[in-house]
Structure formats: structure tokens, C-alpha cells
Amino acid sequence: MRTAFMLFTTVLLGSVALAQSDFGVLAIVSPPDTVLLDTEVVPQVRIYADSDNDDDAVQVYLRIDTLYDDMLDTIIEPGETLTLDLTEWTADTEGVFTVLCSLYADDDTLFDNDTLSQPVVVRALRANFAVEAIPSPPGTFRFGPDTIPLLVVIRAAEANEDDSVTVRLQIDSTLYDETLDVYIDPGATDTIDEFSEWEPDSQGVFLVHCELLVEDDTAANDTLSKEVHVLPPWLDMAVASIEVPEETIPYGEALAPIRDCRRVGQQQRVA
Ligand SMILES: [Ca+2]
Ligand SMILES: [Ca+2]
After folding, report:
1. Are 24 and 110 in contact (CB under 8 A)?
2. Cα separation of 134 and 136, whole Å?
3. Which residues of the chain have pLDDT under 70?
4. What is the Å distance from ligand 2's center to 99 Cα?
5. Structural domains of the chain ordered from first start
6. C-beta separation of 192 from 183 below 8 A
7. Structure pTM?
8. Which ligand sits nearest to residue 221's alpha carbon?
């Protein structure tokens, strides 16, 4: 008898479970992770219904901290997924805020999926920079004369005019380390030639590394490196003159040749 009662209870509970209706929030589609300051976005959420009833009424609420609060009444059909647009929101305050979506339906019996939250960052438009090339020092050169490092930096076109960028150039980390603040017009490509000269005093392979010290939308293009091979200077010899005596040379007289050779690379007279 007891076994029969438990079986009846199980069947009954099972039938109750099968009859449960559920409505839930699937996603906060908008606002996205980041919204630019003073732009307007249309908040958008996705909900679903797992119910046997036609025309279930659902109230959907969306809140963005204390900045925004909206509610939407809608009708949803069994098995349906709806993407709903709410009232526009103008992101006029910088910061990190919590977007909270919740729903209510009379026949809902599962409540864990009735709310969903995610952060949104509101920030001002950034100036975007990228280091494009390191034309100097060249890949191979001979030390002797100094070389002026050159960097090509690009700035994307955008609205805010005033931002500058800090550029750091290092050669083997410690041989050369210089930082400059430069201004580049929006949309322009500039060759920065204001770094001080580099005076390599030994041969070898050196790593030239450029870094833009900036927080912009794409960090991957903020660094660039190249290897430079520094070779010793040429030992460049040249004959400068051969001096011939003008007077008659007596036959049999020994005469020391006179020549004048110069080491051109060092401008150093060797004879
Ligand atoms: Ca639910
Ligand atoms: Ca960048």
C-alpha cells in the first residue's frame, strides 16, 4: 500500500513538473560592453517562454544603475524567443555601470532565470595611434657618424583634437632610452625626427624598440621592434698624390719615391 502511494506521489509530482511554465531572460544584447560618452543606444534584451499557454503577458524591466529605468509589456507565445527594444538611452556619464534586466509573468514557476546583469563602460572617445615604421636607424650601418632615430606614427581621424601621444624609443633597453610627447593631427601620418642622436660605439646586433604610451582602442599596433646590425667603419684608403721631382735626375742616383696616401674613412693621414 505504501509503495502504491509513493508511486502515485511520484507520478503526481512528475505531472506537476511537466506542467511548469517558465519565462526567462536569455541575454542583454544592448548596451554592449563599452559605450562612447554622449552617444545614444537602444537597450535590447532577449527573452523566451516555455509554456503551454497562448498569449502570455510578460513585463520586462531594464535598469542601468540610477541612470536609466524602463519597463515594457509584451505578449509571448509558447516556445517563442523575443528580442525586445526598449526606450533609447543617452550615455551622458562616464564610468562603469550595471545593466540589470528582469521579467515577470503570472504563470512563471522558475525564478532563477528571471534576472540577468552585466557591466557597461561609458567612456569618452579616444585618440587612436599606431607606430607604422622605424626608418632609422637602418637595418645595417657602420658606426662612426651619429644616427638620428626616425619613427613613423599614424593617428586615426576622430573628433577630439587635443590629445598628444608619448613615444618611447629604446635600443637594447639600456644603450638608448628616450621619451617624447608629440602631437599629431587627427588623420595624419608623421615622421618623428625629434629624438636625440644615437652614437653606437661598438659593432653588434641591437634591438630597437618603439612603444606608444597610450591607452587607445587597439594596443596591438602600439609597439614595433627591429634589429639593427652595426658594423665597424670601412678602412678606406686612397692615393692622394704622387710627387715627381721637377729637376733632372742624374743617372745612377738613388731616389726615394714620394707618395701621399690618406685614410679617407677616418680623415687620417697615414703617410
Ligand atoms: Ca522564470
Ligand atoms: Ca593603438
Report:
1. yes
2. 6
3. 1-19, 159-161, 235-237, 245, 257-271
4. 29
5. 19-123 (2.60.40.10), 129-231 (2.60.40.10), 237-269 (no CATH)
6. no
7. 0.59
8. 2
